[in-house]
Amino acid sequence: xxxxxxxxxxxxxxxxxxxxxxxxxxxxxxxxxxxxxxxxxxxxxxxxxxxxxxxxxxxxxxxxxxxxxxxxxxxxxxxxxxxxxxxxxxxxxxxxxxxxxxxxxxxxxxxxxxxxxxxxxxxxxxxxxxxxxxxxxxxxxxx
Length: 143
Known about the structure:
Helix content is 80%, strand content 0%.
């Protein structure tokens, strides 16, 4: 990866809001898991394991940063879902079976779309409504 691209990605994550960072984590986990499938199918076992480990690390981080005080029942359900995903990825690694990885990607995709919708809703609600625009006035000599 070029220095410029690496620098851009670093500044993107360093300046992202918490909500945007969450979305970036989901996108990263999906990307690494999809890559692990491609690498396993291509017979690149060491690259497959590296990508799988990266996906696992992101899901583990998502699980470890849950706030049970603020999140309540939702945080508990997410914790259990992340634990299930991590177990599925362990099975994928042991059995060299992409079916498990695809299932995790499906769950992550569903969660990602939910978070994207929630973030969009929060951002649109926090922006005050713009005043209605006046109709343009006719300019002399142009009509």
